[in-house]
Amino acid sequence: MLLVLMKLWSKPRMSTTELELEIHSAYMDRTEFSSPDVLEVAVVLSRADLTFLYLNFADVLDSDQNTEPLALTNIGFVVSTLICGRSLCASIGTDIEIPLIERQGHVRKLCLAFDSSFHTFTGVCAALASGASFGRLALWVDVDEQANLQVVQDECWSWLAYALWSKGSGCSVRELAIGGIGLSRSGLSIFKAAFQQNYPEPDLMRNVEYGLITIPEGVEVKPRAWMENDSMGLMLTHECRCRARYNNATKNVDFILPGFGICTTKADNRSKFVPDATADLSDEVVAHIPNLGSLELDLSQVESGDVLDALLKLIGSDVRSLTLSIQEGWLGVGNQRVKVDLRELAPCVPHLEELHLQNVTIFVSKHNELLRRWGLKTLEMYEADDADSLDTCLRLLVDKTLRSTRELSELEISVGQLERLNPLARGLMNAISGHIGEFLSVAKDEFPSASKAVMISVVNDCHSPQSSLQYIDASILTLIFEFAARAQQRSAWLLNSNPRKRKLHFCGWNSSPSFMYFE
């Protein structure tokens, strides 16, 4: 279940403190969450500073009405403790004694894998929204074999919108990777609605109100997943303030409990519901994750490039590095690759510096000002054997109206089989190879040492009130330092079947995507 932990437990006379200090990476894979041992594992992990934590919730639930609630109870404890920072509930109707603890360590990189069972996914998303912070967060959802695939994927986007991008979310992530699910126009619509309503299951038709509910310590609650089990429930061990939806017809309140997803209670005197002010339902919305600089989307399928652009317009405003990959075999209608117009992409991710693409065709319909000012520095394309993509890459290198001709320093293009390229594509590849080694800086000769010393002295003296440097425009300063910088040469790789390892690939442990694993 947890190889590192089990090995450490086997060491003789090792104290709990020593055990916690030795745990840096932990993997919970194919775990029997109905076992009480899981609680002890979570307690130990909560006291360790983890560089990496992998939690695989795929295939951990079964249809047994006796063991499934036990597993969900323990999963809720693990998730609320390791992600939210403390356990929130005690179990009712079972022999499980859930310890009341608060997390003392922290998790730097968190990897989460799910199957089509939505109970664990919603509980984890609820926990993420409560205020989690990570250097890197990766989520993989395997829903390929679902009969109601479209519905499940749309619900995934709804919960992701709530957990990561809604106004009520406290989640902070520097690097985010989402994979396994597809993106459709209906999924985009429900994503936007969930973001606007700050609730993962938006309902714009019924007589409902959205708001916050404060539930006191000691109140009994029942997660939606347990509705058919009358003998089991949860009791809050802390007062909780939760996002909620009030149904005026039934007088019931659905609220989101970290670790457990949606629960139901009556809006009585002990539980105070405070409705929102009028929600902003305009189309012009921008979602934001604090500190997000890198976004990776490894999608099973995408309905169209327009849908992808619309999603990135919502969530990509601060992104510096973007990875887009469409799984092989899910390349859209008629097995055609998704086409992305850089003219439309540039305004969606205006600060982008690195772009990594796989099974995606790029083109430029026509120029606009945002594309001209787009400061792309790195472009990597895998399986780029179409003429449109190759022509676009060449244009980024030679079109003097584009900023990329001066700043695109790394270009990597991988084609499937060179011998299968048509003459046009071969000619474009040859033209691109002619730009390898070009100098990018304003000056091709290195700045003299004496001049560098003068510039350093000026910068060091910039805090002086008499310094003229304070009156120079920022754009002028940029040009000066570009001129003074060491001359940079453009590097490019034109690869046949990409002998180097791709940054995006799906081979790996238990069929999980390899982007989940970190060096």
From TrEMBL:
It comes from Phytophthora nicotianae. This is Uncharacterized protein.
